[in-house]
Specification:
- The structure holds two protein chains of two kinds.
- By secondary structure, chain A is mainly β.
- Chain A has three helices and 29 strands.
- By secondary structure, chain B is an alpha+beta fold.
- Chain B is built from 13 helices and 21 strands.
- Chain B is globular.
- The two termini of chain B are 30 Å apart.
- Classes of the chains: A mainly beta, B alpha+beta.
Amino acid sequence: MEIMRRMGLNCLIAALAGLLLRPCPAAAVPGPWDPPAANLAGQVADLLGPGQVRLTLRNLSSIPADQIPAIRKLLVQDLRARGITLAGAESANEVRITLSESARQRLWVAEVMEGSESRVAMVELSAAPVEAAKAPGTLLLRKQQVLVASEPVLAVLETSAALLALEPEQVVLYAHAADGWQEQQRATVDTQQVLARDPRGVLALDGNGGFEAWLPGAQCAGSIAAPAPPAEWTIQCRASDDPWPFVQPSAVGGAASIRAFYNASRNYFTGVLAPSIGADLPPFYSLIQLPRPLGAAAVLIGGVDGRVQLVENGVLRPVSGARDWGSEFAVLQSGCGSGAQVIVSASGDASSDSLGAYELSALEVVPASESLMIAGTVTALSTAPDGKSVLAVVRNAANDYEVDRVTAFCN
Amino acid sequence: MLRRFAISGLMLVLALPLMARTRPHYGGTLRVEIAGNPWQGPDGLARQLILDGLTALDAHGAVRPALAASWKSDDNGHRWQFRLRPGVQFQDGSPLTATAVVMSLNLACASNCPWTAVHAVGESVVFTADHPVPQLPTLLAGDAFLIALTRSADGQPPAALIGTGAFQFTSFNNNTLTLAANESCWQGRPFVDQIVITAYRAIRDQWLDLSLGRADVAEVPAEQLRQAQQQRLTVVRSAPVLLLALRLSDSGALSNSVLRAVIAHAVDRSALFNVIFQKQGEVTASLLPQSLTGYSFLFPADRDLNKANELRGGLSLPALTMAASGDGTMQLAAQRIALNLREAGIAVQPNSNPAHADLVLCRLPLQGADAAGVLANLLFSASQSAPAPGPDVQALFRTERNVLDASTIVPLLDLPRAYAVGDRVRDFALRADGTPDLAAASLEDAP
């Protein structure tokens, strides 16, 4: 009410000054400082009542200094509207206003001094979000949240109508509903294995319309009978030390699946593949199959020793330019540039990760996008069945797991 | 010889651009050196590695489920029910049960607990209290309420500390504590196979061992942070997680609140900050830091000797006793405060027993993201209580002001914790309380 009245007064003054060349912004939205100023002035008036005060204002917050005069003006107007006018040093009453903030929010504090008595009024304001600077790149990566889970998510797989998530001891089926993915079914997997601190697992299409799930010491096979809620599926799990699938059949031009033996106690793949790709591989954390210009596929591995290597025509060769890479990568068929890029997690320490797109040129990887900042640690990346997006599993600071869809736009 | 070095160097340079960052490696032994007792709270590193709480604080200080998978409160916060996480085992293989949790809590807190009674009800632990305890989940994340096995399968107290944490006790000989990875930890096996903690090691020796590659993690006291940086140690420091405070008895010689107020006005925080703590941390007169509330500046931190003398007036002042809990720096700080008080006409004598001293210089925890929870935890650690504040910042301020008006706690400085870390350690991070999260650390050169 007070704000409206003030806006009306301002309009009148502006009109009298001959400035009303365009319609008065009677319906304009109040500025961000109007509500807290009015609130604080109201609290001060409740404590002090009408009268004269000395007013001091100091800024301990991140509010830019050039905005302080406007805030002071608002406060003075709001106090005056409640019968409190400013006086000089002779006044016994003083109002000390401090624009402060904590790590979470802004706080405006008024200390009302009447003689030796001091009382306090406060107004909480939410801190303004900081816009991240955007820089151009050849490719623009974007992410969209798909799912949030409180339990660890080791892998995700999106089929035509359902989403599967692999947890350390369960496979979870989600179906698409009006308000996003909704959990439908859970199946427990008896792993009989020591759980790692950063547990891993794989979900993959089986090439026959079904899916397979792999955890240390266990394997599940299943199919989705009815994807719409209430979704139905069949799933059977068994103990297994068989190699894990590494390439989803439809992800990269329908290439045949490669399987790799997994060392559960050290959480890496031993380097033994089935079928063999003609080269002796070192132990590795990640493997993807890359489309190559001449139609043949190459395999890119992220070794336990931190080296990224390419296997092409049965020859293993080191790739340069991957120093900033983390251990997670996946192929994205963006249609931009060479048509396909490698989406890679960054090498930074846990709390704030990022994703970047890279092009493989000969034996060198070249950045193809600016970094897409991720609030948390990327723990798994997988290519969606159509190849046009990548699903990223992110563990945030609160230890919740978030699944994001990452897509690319040509710049 | 030189040529071989040059070639090796060139190969190293050529190899570097090829290296990407990998997942953390499993295996190896992490060597940690500390100046204090690894078992003693609140800095008891071993306790935190071996034990878990019903709840825990994440890196930002928010309360998260730990041994309790979920919880709810009824009756306006008078009754809390914590449902245990299924399938969790103690390190001796025995299952975590509600009865075991209750026995542990009763042993940890025999009196002045935040609750009136705690019971096992099926797979849940139920707390009841005469007054509302809205911050109970935050309180249960504290070091005091970590869950330990109190009875082995044979009904006897276990020979060593047994919990559900990431590491289990192996041996403690010649001040060297060895902990092994808990393969069946509910949070997953930690990355390193073993942690060796060398206790009671002087800071200078810790840093020497670190620089010679004989240790991986060493302590950096707040007052030596600048020195550590000058020595080019890799230092990880927390936000302020400790409140240096003077705890005043409200009985005996200090039963007069005016005398306590005299002490509060006479203490010179700036001298402590500039001289003893080498300008590390922040001067404060509030219980909660400015970063948590935004109103800390409302409590003036400047020394006011005139006000102290004015309040003292004609009061006859008996000699007081003061103890300092902690290391040599705390003793120095206590001596400095004794000088301050002498200038206000108060004689202070040292006392080695904090339980019988009028004044105790101590460090209190400032852990958590919820200001009301941090305040509750701090007051519990200081053996004080206050009504639970309302949800808004004004109510929190009123509660804090009421506590400070009683002058039984005089806040002095907010201090960080810090550690120096060797080159082979990866993903070294600090918990919300500033202690190292060693279960998340791994070694670059692990086999």
